[in-house]
Amino acid sequence: MKVITTTLELKDKVTMASKALAKKSVKPILAGFLFEVKDGSFYICATDLETGVRANVNAVEISGEARFVVPGDIFQKLVKVLSEDTTELSLEGDTLVITSGSTVFRVTTMPADEFPDISPAESGISFEVDTSLLEEMVEKVIFAAATDEFMRNLNGVFWELHKNLLRLVASDGFRLALAEEQIENEEETNFLLSLKSMKEVQNILKNTTEPSVTIRYDGRRASLTTNDVETVMRVVDAEFPDYKRVIPETFKTKVIVSKKSLQESLKRIMVIASKGSESVKLEIEESTMKLMSKNPEYGEVVDELEIQKEGEDLVIAFNPKFISDVLRHIETEEIEMNFVDSTSPCQINPLDISGYLYIVMPIRLA
User: Fold this and answer.
1) Residue 347 vs residues 114, 142, 242, 259: alpha-carbon distances, Å
2) Residue 363 φ then ψ, to 5°
3) pLDDT the model gives residue 278
């Protein structure tokens, strides 16, 4: 077996595959890259049993066939220090020889017999999505997912396909983000992908130059495919909560406020807000919204914003970070905040633009 490729291409594909390497595993083979050379193609693969990546390395020359595993950590370090334009990989017995200019590395390989199958879903549902559109949707919801891996039903992003509508939803129990877009599709299904898998999806979407990606789902696995990279993800076997129950159907108070003004105000509020018990109280009346926070150690802060208000006056409190987080993902100059009462969820969304909403639970007023 012999492969000659550009060093830059090798580095790029190793970086992509490395995201799926098992960080902690009793199986050493999961900490390694599977190299597959067959039918004139060269693939670098990695998996932690939850997410698998199969990256096609565009090579200048490929000859022979081989299938083996190399230690992931050492190969990543090795590739980073290669400085010549091209790199040659060849196999001598169970040793991988890496030659780049006058530099030669020899790395002991492992048999690939026990490496898990990471072939993509082939049957089931398949649909195509614009790459930039999906990247934007993922960006708008992933920050709201629970980071605790023990919260299996919330530690990820829920995908819902309803005919021509693709919806992504994430929640950590305190807030919820929902993004939806029209796509060409006739199928209906839903599945939950872990936060780790979603971060790999995000990585692929940011790095691909393909205008669209293909998503496949067979009831057990979901895969995302571009021309060069296949990402195969095990669907989380847990039930995502009925998110529609927390989205209010009617509101008693509607506020329109400048996104920039609210962002700057929250920055000032968070200087004083107590760490570990962050709270901002909103007093909404007439054409103003007062933001207040107290800290027993440092004092208090009061800020006032001009708003447009419809409906009842209201006093309500939130974690300021939860509001600040969503403002980074809204592109309109003004936002809409909709309230029911001081104990019910608040809905935040871009003004006059559909397809994105954010729900945040209030904090009990002292």
Assistant:
1) 49, 17, 17, 15
2) -100, 145
3) 84
Same structural domain for residues 282 and 344?
Answer: yes
Say if 116 falls within a structural domain: no
| Nearest of 262, 276, 297, 286 to residue 363 by alpha carbon | 276
Tokens of 357: 């909403």
Rounded (5°) CA angle 179-226-130: 35
Tally the C-alpha atoms within 13 A of residue 324's C-alpha that lie toward its C-beta. Answer: 14
State the residue range of the domain holding 81: 2-111
CA–CA distance, 247 with 347 (Å, rounded to integer): 8
Question: Based on the domain organization, do 226 and 257 belong to the same domain?
Answer: no
Instruction: With respect to residue 119, please indicate whether it lies within any of the assigned structural domains.
Output: no
DSSP annotation string for 148-169: -TT-TTTSEEEEEEETTEEEEE
The CA–CA distances, whole Å, from 300 to 68, 132, 135, 281, 321 equal: 63, 43, 40, 11, 17
Q: How far is Cα 275 from Cα 304, in angstroms, rounded to an integer?
A: 22
Q: Is residue 117 part of a domain?
A: no
Residue that has been written with the tokens 């509020």 in this structure: 269
Residues 333-359, mean pLDDT to the nearest whole number? 97
CATH code at 17? 3.10.150.10
pLDDT for the residue numbered 61: 95
Structural element, H or E, at residue 366 = none
In a domain, 366, yes or no: no
**Cβ atoms < 10 Å from Cβ of 40:** 9
d(Cα 84, Cα 101) in Å, to the nearest integer? 6
Q: State which of 244, 279, 304 marks the end of a domain.
A: 244
pLDDT at 63 (0 to 100): 95
